[in-house]
């Protein structure tokens, strides 16, 4: 403990961020250290799993040391170790998991596995001290797009998810087609502000009536077909208009379905989570739609939207105080589903 408060050391390494944090009583961040690989993967237009794993191996111990040092703590002060065990890149997950196990075994501390997506939802508990379950959650990131009914601090039920590309994945692929670079989400968000979202209309994919699932592969193909058609006709492509039209088509479906799910269940609160939750246009659209129906909207600051260990420590804390523990045989689960 630190000053009589439960201290969780958390490790996150599911993709290309190596992160560690010390959390007090789940909601206060004593320290948060992150080593990013964005610049390394830019030249490839996306995350290369093997390269990500190598850099996690180099970075994980220094990042843990930094988190402990900034918190003014030693392993004697730590009550438990939380770690992401899925979903994510299997090699990347294994680096963080092996590190957490080593610390847990050497220091005699409990090990607590955390679902990465549940961690994203828990980022809102850090940002909003008054927030308590139940509520509806929109998880929107590079690998996931889910509408989630959060019933308590440890339990939730997925109402809908993506059937192909996640929203963030679609952003990255479209950004590559437009020649914008990587990561695509922030780049499209920025250039779309200069474009007309009605100049290049793209089809909205709603799927069957009553479904809370998503499909974004079609709009990615739509963007590619539009660009090829314009180039073949010798016409100049307005990148800002294409980006704005693409973004509007994706976010209109996401926002509408998230609010409909909350209204259907008479839920008056929606939280946003995941890297794409930092998107400025998404926040504008969600705020406007939620306000129409008297729904209160929560979202974390951008630093807590992207991958970090503080959110993992928060999720681990609520498992810890309920007496939940994992053994040293805990394995990485790259396709781990929320709620498992």
How would you characterize this protein structure?
By secondary structure, this protein is α/β, with parallel strands linked by helices. It folds into two domains: 7-121 and 305-320, 2-Layer Sandwich (Nucleotidyltransferase, domain 5), CATH 3.30.420; 134-300, ATPase, nucleotide binding domain (Nucleotidyltransferase, domain 5, 2-Layer Sandwich), CATH 3.30.420. It is 44% helix and 18% strand. It has helices at 38-42, 49-71, 90-107, 116-127, 167-177, 184-192, 217-232, 239-264, 280-292, 302-305, 310-320; strands at 7-12, 17-24, 28-36, 80-86, 111-115, 135-140, 145-150, 156-161, 269-273, 296-298. It has a five-stranded mixed β-sheet with strand order 3-2-1-4-5, sandwiched between helices. It has a five-stranded mixed β-sheet with strand order 8-7-6-9-10, with helices on both faces. Helix 5 runs antiparallel to helix 8 and helix 6 crosses helix 8 (239-264).
Average pLDDT confidence is 94
Strand content: 15-25%
Distance linking N and C termini: 29 Å
Q: Helix/strand-derived class?
A: alpha/beta
- Which stretches are poorly predicted, pLDDT < 50 over at least 5 residues? none
H/E order of the elements?
EEEHHEHEHEEEHHHHEHEHH
Annotated CATH architecture of the largest domain: 2-Layer Sandwich
Q: What is the name of the CATH superfamily of the largest domain?
A: ATPase, nucleotide binding domain
Could you say how many structural domains there are in total? 2
Overall geometric form? globular
CATH topology of the largest domain: Nucleotidyltransferase, domain 5
Oligomer: single chain
**Would you count the extended β strands for me?**
10
Question: What is the helical fraction, as a range of percent?
Answer: 40-55%
Please state the CA-atom Rg, rounded to the nearest Å. 20 Å
């Amino acid at each position: 403990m630190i000053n009589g408060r439960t201290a969780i050391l958390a490790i996150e390494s599911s993709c290309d961020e190596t992160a560690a944090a010390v959390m007090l009583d789940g909601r206060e961040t004593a320290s948060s250290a992150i080593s990013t690989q964005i610049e390394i993967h830019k030249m490839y237009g996306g995350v290369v799993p093997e390269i990500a794993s190598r850099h996690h191996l180099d970075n994980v111990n220094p990042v843990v040391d930094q988190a402990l040092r900034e918190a003014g703590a030693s392993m004697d002060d730590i009550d438990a170790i939380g770690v992401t065990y899925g979903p994510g890149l299997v090699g990347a997950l294994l680096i963080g998991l092996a590190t957490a196990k080593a610390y847990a075994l050497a220091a005699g501390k409990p090990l607590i596995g955390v679902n990465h997506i549940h961690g994203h939802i828990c980022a809102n508990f850090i940002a909003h001290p008054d927030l308590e379950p139940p509520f509806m959650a929109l998880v929107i990131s590079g690998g996931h797009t889910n509408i989630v009914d959060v019933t308590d601090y440890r339990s939730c039920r997925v109402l809908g998810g993506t059937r192909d590309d996640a929203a963030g994945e679609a952003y990255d692929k479209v950004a590559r087609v437009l020649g914008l670079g990587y990561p695509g989400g922030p780049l499209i968000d920025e250039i779309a502000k200069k474009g007309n979202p009605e100049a290049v209309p793209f089809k909205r994919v709603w799927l069957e009536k009553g479904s809370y699932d998503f499909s974004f592969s079609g709009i990615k193909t739509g963007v590619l077909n539009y660009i090829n058609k314009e180039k073949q006709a010798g016409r100049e492509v307005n990148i800002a208009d294409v980006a704005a039209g693409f973004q509007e088509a994706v976010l209109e479906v996401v926002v509408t379905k998230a609010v409909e799910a909350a209204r259907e269940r008479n839920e008056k609160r929606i939280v946003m989570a995941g890297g794409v939750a930092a998107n400025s246009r998404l926040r504008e659209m969600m705020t406007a739609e939620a306000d129409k129906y008297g729904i209160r909207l929560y979202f974390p600051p951008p630093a807590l939207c992207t991958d970090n260990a503080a959110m993992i420590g928060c999720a681990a804390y609520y498992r810890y105080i309920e007496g939940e523990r994992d053994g040293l045989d805990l394995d990485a689960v790259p396709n781990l589903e929320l709620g498992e």
